[in-house]
Fold these 4 entries.
Entry 1:
Amino acid sequence: MPTERTLVLLKPDAVARRLAGPILTRFEQKGLRIAALKLIQVTPELAKRHYAEHVQKPFYPMLESFITAGPTVALVLEGKSAISVVRGMMGPTNGRDAAPGTIRGDYGTSRQMNLVHGSDGPEAAAKEIAIYFQPHEVVDATEPLAPWLSAGD
Ligand code: UDP
């Protein structure tokens, strides 16, 4: 079971609906580690880099309007088989098809405004992490804080 890193976006609908915290909590409770995290405004240029494979598709103009409409939380999650674990937790693209218990299944009924993005494979993860984060922004696992916590007031 490989330890993987994956690029996750909490899209503008998740932030606007105050669901960034609950969705992030799900990933942490699953045991995935936050390796990088920031709040960003996606620009049209960034959207075109991220969604290069979709730029020519009929739905792209609406997708770009949506993903640039407000703040997005970008993060790198790390864990065993993190890429497929995150994809499973997200559910399928369309919230109407997504089973209860998945993020999209629990919080939405839209195909476009589906709250969350997760890389769909190792190649995409490497490419997408590099789009959103400088290498120094992705933090390696640190030593446990136990010695400091037990020594504190
Ligand atoms: N999308 C859309 N209309 C479509 C298909 C996709 O607006 O008909 C949006 C949706 O937000 C989706 C994103 O484009 O999450 C990327 O599509 P993809 O097929 O890669 O879906 P995902 O991997 O996010 O489930």
Entry 2:
Amino acid sequence: MSALLEVAGVSKSFGPVKAVDNIDLTIGANEFFALLGPSGCGKTTLLRMIAGFEMPDQGRIILAGQDITGVKANKRPINLMFQSYALFPHMTVAGNVAYGLEMEGMRGAELDRRVAEALDLVQLSPLAKRKPAQLSGGQKQRVALARALVKRPQLLLLDEPLGALDKKLREQMQIELKRLQQETGIAFLVVTHDQEEALTMADRIALLKAGRVAQLDAPRALYERPSSRFVADFIGQMNFLAGEVTAAGLEIPGLGCFGAVNLADHAIGTRAELAIRPERVELLDGAVSGAIAAHVSGLAYLGQDLILHLSIAGRAQPLVARVPAANPLSTRLRQGLDLWCRWPAEHSLVLSE
Ligand code: ATP
């Protein structure tokens, strides 16, 4: 991966709040990168520093080998697409898209060609003569995208780009954004608090917690090998069972000793938690060695899958299981049923804070 953007030791405080705390990361040319994390973790502040709207207290921002830390926002080959879209209401769609290039002095056939190309890319050519007030939310969003892409930046920054759209449109646009990124070859840096959005679109994700990188990985690694309880809890759903690390596995009071793929990373005698994804919990209608007796205390039908809450003796929190609705057992599953459950050690993780 050739590096396009390098963020090196960047920090930023607002009074006593350390919004960004010594962050290092590298984004490749042609990469779709997501900054993900709960509200207030510093995503927007980091994005604004990369855009040049905010100066870091410490650290450097390097783009294509050039230190741009002190370079003004409008002199950076970077574009930022605002969440509000910030379209000019009195201009047509084509006028909005042309504006940035006109400001650079472009005119005539070249300008027309570039605008037509950008509108084509976001499939808005038939609406070129409309005003923003005559567009739907999704269409406005496409104009904002075309306006950002028309300048052919090396890096496009998008702050919660799909935040204003409804769920269905958001899912469509996730795929669309990914296509646009691949077609243009421009590196995209997206800020989102929506983990599903980040998992769907990004090549790599940096999950932030309180101004720091909690984990930086490809979506699958983040989901399958979270490095801490925070990451496991933020990405998808996870069951946690507290216990003590032994040589044989995690000893969970009242349940037994359970193996896990990363057991060896933890010191014997320390407290930790066993983490199991709901879809890894298997249901059995008979007792087998190592299976745990459970009682179905809740059941939700999701169409493709069923979500079950399983009460286990001596535990206040139910274990959550997610099974395909087409499962042979599924037709018999109902609230109040007694059954057994287990999970494979190769899909269990031991996690600490
Ligand atoms: P959200 O998803 O809610 O937008 P975020 O992850 O983008 O959150 P930031 O907006 O970067 O988080 O804020 C990080 C921290 O810095 C927060 O505690 C926020 O209150 C604080 N902060 C951000 N901008 C300012 C500012 N201009 N003045 C004071 N505090 C600020």
Entry 3:
Amino acid sequence: TNNKKFIVVFVLGGPGSGKGTQCAKIVEHFGYTHLSAGDLLRAEINSGSENGTMIQSMIKEGKIVPSEVTVKLLQRAMNESGNDKFLIDGFPRNEENRAAFEAVTGIVPEFVLFFDCSEEEMERRLLNRNQGREDDNIETIRKRFRVYMESSLPVIEYYNLKGKVQKINAAQPVEEVFESVKGVFSKVAA
Ligand code: UP5
Ligand code: MG
């Protein structure tokens, strides 16, 4: 494949840390295509795909969908986009995701943008979101936090040891967070 021409930034951070909000702003300023793995999985449920029921129950439980499903959706979206620069938001969420993406696509991320935020603040944001997401209830939110701590933080640590993590204080107002984000893209992706 010719996937190796693709420039990928992984955008990671806990549930409600502001990944989607900041990605929308990065797209406006820096010309990336935003691919939210969660949004692609929710679209797959709504398309009536044969995997839809499985995906829906995993999201409801805050569990991580097997990478063969997610990697395929990401690959298809990259190939259909016409762009060569991607923000991959909310993926990889565990070691299996990380290894599968690299093995299947041959892509290594340019860097990892990590939104660091306290659980208290993330919980407040998720409970206030009110967009009808089936996982924005306190029981599922607690499960999402546990999976994040146990499975997703180790992936961030993996990239941190490789010197690839750009950590952002995500507990500030949206515009202040974006000032930090702009600093990273101006410096690292210049
Ligand atoms: N908000 C944002 N920034 C703010 C700020 N600075 N100050 C105050 N408020 C702020 O923001 C969340 C809310 O906070 C919004 O109301 C926003 O206005 C406000 P958002 O930008 O949506 O945060 P985000 O980090 O994107 O939160 P999200 O809930 O999308 O994160 P998750 O990582 O939990 O969700 P995702 O969609 O990535 O995954 C959902 C589920 O899908 C997972 O739990 C899992 O079951 C499954 N999944 C997989 O299995 N595999 C994958 O690869 C991906 C997902
Ligand atoms: Mg999101």
Entry 4:
Amino acid sequence: MYHKQIERFPDTFLFGASTSSFQVEGGQTSGGRGEALHDRSPKKAGITDFSTASDHYHRWEEDIDLFHELGLKVYRFSMSWTRIMPDGKNVNQEGLAFYDKIVDKLVGYGIEPLVTIYHFEYPSKLVDDFGGWLSPKSIDAYEEFANVLFTHFGDRVKYWLTINEQDHVIKISERLGLSKESEGVEFEGQVQQANYYMCVATAKVIKLAHEIIPNVKIGPAVNPMPAIPASANPLDVIASMTFNELSHYYILDLHCRGKFSPIHWKYMEDRDICPEVKEEELQLMAENTPDFIGINYYLNQTVAHSEKEKIELRGQGVFMEEEAGIYKLVENKEIPQTDWGWNICPEGLSIALMDVYNRYQLPMLITENGLGAYDEVVEGEIHDTYRIDFLANHLKQIKDCLSLGFPIIGYCAWSAIDLVSGREGMDKRYGFIYVNRTNDELRDLNRIKKDSFYWYQNVIQERGYSL
Ligand code: BG6
């Protein structure tokens, strides 16, 4: 489609970048931090060891100086639940003090802090005490944590994200405090119940934020992988629409409408895995909708109809290749992939933004988007042209959507600085700033600005004029 383009992104547009506490901070046992679920999970040797991560806990000052030099207008980060409430109940002043320093330094530089309340880092103690997100008690625990954050930081932090990628919490057993072996028929029901509790918790926390913080903006960060039909066969079109319902709209409909997506409800009914639902909780959701929707976009999927004529209980979490009788994911030769097999499809970002806006009419903020790649240091420099291409192509899609009038308030690339990838370790780098360590060797952890750093600095300065 041809349309006249805006020359530059609006001057209010929040160019930014993101991190999450457990992936970047390290300092696992410092400052009174308590144990989180991922500290307990079995480690893939050298890979998912978050004890030092990028050592941001000790180098936060140098890092924020670099974010300022990069020109960030917004910095998205999460506040570690276990640093602030080590046992999920009592407040640790040292934890609050750590984030005070970060928030004050950002604000001093005129960088808007965007805080994720919960990004995969759950206090183990709450799982031991009552089963974490599998219990309705988790709603109160999460509300209490949010209350501490809003009361303490609400004078300086106006932008908040409730839960990061809920779909990837509930469908990954260890993020719920369950073992891999516990995945099975019963797990299906637990997934749906946890999802529902998290939606109730989100609505309560949105309500609380609106009561406590003047001019607050709060919303969830979801991860749509918008499906494109594998062919012109209408069955593939229906399969791809259904995939979208079961992969992200099933959460967003509860957040933004206080209703279950009909396809999602029927899916649960057929499998006898419906959660326990209270009318007044749905009402609470309908009355406390987000101010904006955070979109984490990395990849899309190509989807075909599944010919199987039966209902299967999957018994396991996310990334299912086939949902019997509903859809199956297929290869798409038109779409290149990263070294980790993730589809690279910038247009998918436009599809997600257009679709989400058309369904909910809420402003959107891209909360994550980036390329995980192996980076090589050559004579002290990192020539990451592949990352520049990836980010430029995605930013062009955003410029296009802005030109069409879609309300997009900002863009946070993943990630501001190299950090430990959730599942793949340090080899899979995303940052504008290189951190000198590998999966197996900590080295000196020195910071090096990559070529993409200077490129993004220019994009921000000229507000995307050359894109
Ligand atoms: C998102 C998460 O799922 O994707 C991040 O919010 C994560 O925490 C990012 O790091 C990239 O995924 P991965 O597996 O490459 O680290």
